[in-house]
Amino acid sequence: QVRLVESGGGLVQAGDSLRLSCAASDGAFSNYNVAWFRQAPGEEEREWIGGITWMNSRTYYVDSDSVKGRFTISRDNSKSTAFLQMNSLEPEDTAVYYCAAEQTIGMSDNYHSYRYWGQGTQVTVSS
User: Fold this and answer.
1) For residue 101, what is the enclosing H or E element?
2) What is the DSSP letter of 46?
3) Bridge partners of residue 4, in order along the sequence
4) Which helix (H) or strand (E) holds 50?
5) Rounded Cα distance, 101 and 124, in Å
6) Cα–chain-centroid distance for residue 8?
7) How is residue 88 annotated by DSSP?
8) pLDDT tens track, the chain, 127 positions
9) What share of the chain is helix, strand, coil (3-state, %, to 5)?
10) Which of 4, 41, 61, 124 has the greatest number of CB atoms lying within 10 Å of its CB?
11) What phi-psi label fits residue 15: left (phi over 0), alpha (psi between -120 and 50 degrees) or beta?
12) d(CA 62, CA 56)
């Protein structure tokens, strides 16, 4: 079982950048796909932003203009940590951001596919 801890959230202004981290307790982190989700205020479901595979660190992103070109996912297996770099933040990016992990082949955008979740980190973007 792997425990995930997110960090790096906060209150920023529109146009600013943040880098979220997702640190894993399991030394076998390199065998897990990692995905990032967010849940905006008032939304019932978590939105998949993208993910990175364990096999070859291939990245996937939601096919939406909402984050395309602004968010970048990466990982450092030597530190058992994944990252979400967010640039040119907009007020619409305000949400709780979660990382999730699963040992699987292929990337899933369905939050039901992930057993392991972090506690979430709040990102608030003011206009």
Assistant:
1) strand 95-102
2) P
3) 24
4) strand 47-52
5) 24
6) 11
7) S
8) 889 999 999 999 999 999 999 999 977 888 999 999 999 999 999 999 999 999 899 999 999 888 889 999 999 999 999 999 999 999 999 999 999 999 988 899 999 999 999 999 999 999 9
9) 10, 45, 45
10) 4
11) left
12) 19
> Which single residue is written with the structure tokens 């940590």?
81
| Neighbour count for residue 124 (Cβ, 10 Å) | 15
Close Cβ partners of 91 (under 8 Å, ≥ 6 residues apart): 14, 125, 126, 127
Q: Which residue has the tokens 């395309």?
A: 68
Which tokens in the block code for residue 13?
A: 């202004």
Buried-exposed string 69-94: b where 16+ CB fall within 10 A, e elsewhere = ebbbbebebeebbbbbebeebeeebb
